[in-house]
Amino acid sequence: MGRADMDRVFNKDVDAVPDPGIAPPAEASAPTEPPAPASDEGAKSTPSRVTFDVTPELHRAYRVWTLTNGTTMKDHLTAYIKQSIGS
């Protein structure tokens, strides 16, 4: 087996990755119908998790607020999300 010409390998111009600044303009096309909304059939059996970060102080204050208002953080946030989307 012969040796690879390393000078040819490492000094070769690479054109496989296009420069994002010179990307071809997007082709104009007729508007399409929006996709149909996803079915909620599996949503009731498989819950999705919502995760976001808050400061420890805000978390503590919210936990105290939910306890003093007779609810849980989960129940209050779930009700708020449902109210926000109009369900």
> How many separate helices?
3
Distance between the termini: 70 Å
Oligomer category: single chain
Q: Using only CA atoms, what is the Rg?
A: 27 Å
Average pLDDT works out at 77
Percentage of helical residues? 25-40%
Strand content of the residues, in percent? under 5%
Total number of strands: 0
Order of helices and strands: HHH
Give the biggest beta sheet: none
Shape: extended
Uncertain stretches: none
Could you say which structural class the secondary elements and strand pairing correspond to? mainly alpha
InterPro entries: Arc_rbn_hlx_hlx, Ribbon_hlx_hlx
Keywords: Plasmid
GO biological process, one term: regulation of DNA-templated transcription
Keywords:
87 residues, mainly alpha, 3 helices, extended
SSE layout and pairing:
Blueprint: H1 6-10, H2 56-68, H3 73-85
Task: Offer a concise description of the structure.
Keywords: Plasmid. By secondary structure, this protein is mostly helical.
Molecular structure report:
The mean pLDDT is 77. This protein has three helices and no strands. The chain has a domain at 56-82. By secondary structure, it is mainly alpha-helical. The longest helix is centred in the C-terminal third of the chain and has 13 residues, at 56-68. It has helices at residues 6-10, 56-68, 73-85. Helices cover 36% and strands 0% of the residues. Residues 1-15 have a biased composition (Basic and acidic residues). Residues 1-52 are annotated as: Disordered. Keywords: Plasmid.
